[in-house]
Amino acid sequence: MPPNLDIFTLILLIMTISLILYTLLLSFIQRKASRETVKPKIITKISCMRDDYSEERDFKKGDYVGLVVGKCPKCEGNLLITAIYLIRGVKEKG
Amino acid sequence: MNMLDVSDIWTLIIVIIFILSFILNFTDIPQRIQLWRFASYVRRKLIQVDDIESDVRRRLVNYLGSLGIKTPREIVDNFVNNYFLIEPVNIEPTDIIRRLAHLIRVRDTNIKSYIDYCMPGLTKVDKHNLIVALEIAAVITIVNKVLKHYFKTGLESNNWVLLMQLALEMPRILKIINAYSKALDAFFLGTPIGDAAGPLLVKYLVGGTEPKYIAEDTVYFDGVMLNNRRVYAIKAEGPGATVGRIGEAVEKLVEKLGGNVARIITVDAALKLESEVTGEVAEGVGAAIGDIGPEKISIERVAVKYGIPLDAVVIKMSQEEAINTMTKEVYDGVLKALDKVKNIITSRVREGESVIVVGVGNTVGVL
Questions:
Q1: Within-domain flag for A2
Q2: Residue A94: pLDDT band with limits 50, 70, 90
């Protein structure tokens, strides 16, 4: 220890450095968390009325549950939108 | 500088402790510091609320623009600053429900008239979705105004306790405001929200059965048979965003059937506790409906009048999930609830009897 550095100055110095490091670490963690965004995806589930066919695709504006969207490729019955739901995507850096 | 000896250091420490103790115990300085800290924190959060409010209005104005409206800003501003509801007198409780129902209906009618007047030619679906979107903007504006009121009151009266309470509640309030802001997209797109769990279950139960009008914005389904039990189902009329008049519909349907109903099963979304899992299904007794009174009491009264047992099935979700696009977890919960409802019908309703299933909630995105 240098001769002109007393114990109280040393404690004060350590506390100041710790405070600066803590503040920097906290802001780094917060910035990292804000960069990581979760991108959700809306899925439209389409099924045949006779329940022999189903598919999933991305949601399109105008979709709603109960909407007839075409004919079943297997039985020619009506294809209906049976569900619309959101799946949480993977975390990605924005 | 000469080094202090040990006794000098201890004297210094004792003097500092004494001064600090005096400051902490006999002055307002700590409270002033806290007031300053809490005020600074709340001020930062209020800036965020302001940003959210502006963003919601901007998105709403753009949406109205996309519908071909020429003066969207005026329409939004006029809506969010008006259409409050004064609750009826409650020190005289006689017929309070009828008075409340009347006021709610007058407000609904006024809002619909306003939309029809400002934006003639909108489809029913667009109109209903737009009304809910405008309500969201109005709610965020009101919350922002109330927060600023308490903040300014706290500052003016140096009430650090009020500011501390505000500061402690701000994260939770911001979370709710953010959820409302995000919910706007669901109504612009017309996707089913978590609260649509009840109507979606009814849709699955009745399949392709044609709906029949029973009350304003409300339909019922007849002729659905489940293991020789006749199932009547009620839900709001979709796919626009509306909760319909479920209570009135149940009352009318039961009266129409002369009270010959074995059970009434209500299905609704319920707010989960933090320890509960989204999509969890629970069953109980009573009317599962979250309105402020008139619809729920209609169901209870008609059930009591004819002695009909009331079953409640709820699908648990958070407030954010309830007002935003339905998540996969909630959707899975709907399928589980459907099984539970079918189980209740087959186990508690005898063959040849009738049962009413009520899908409570906002039917946005569900026909």
A1: no
A2: very low
CATH superfamily of B194-359: Peptidyl-tRNA hydrolase (3.40.50.1470)
Q: Which of B198, B196, B336, B362 is nearest to B277 (CA)?
A: B336
- Tell me how many helices (H) and strands (E) chain B has: 11, 7
Report the alpha-carbon distance of residue B199 to residue A79 in Å, rounded. Answer: 20
Give residue A47's domain range. 39-93
* A31 is a domain residue: yes
State the alpha helices, DSSP H only, in B121-243: 124-156, 160-189, 197-206
A67 touches chain B (CB under 8 A): yes
What would the pLDDT profile of B11-31 be if each residue is shown by its tens digit? 888 999 999 999 888 888 888
Residue A59 within a domain: yes
Instruction: Give the total number of structural domains in chain A.
Output: 2
For testing contact with chain B, the best of A7, A51, A86, A87 (most B CBs within 10 A): A86
Mean pLDDT of chain B: 93
- Which among B3, B191, B208 has the least Cβ separation from residue A84? B191
Q: Which residues of B touch A63 (CB under 8 A)?
A: 190-191, 365
Name the pLDDT band for B121 (thresholds 50, 70, 90): confident
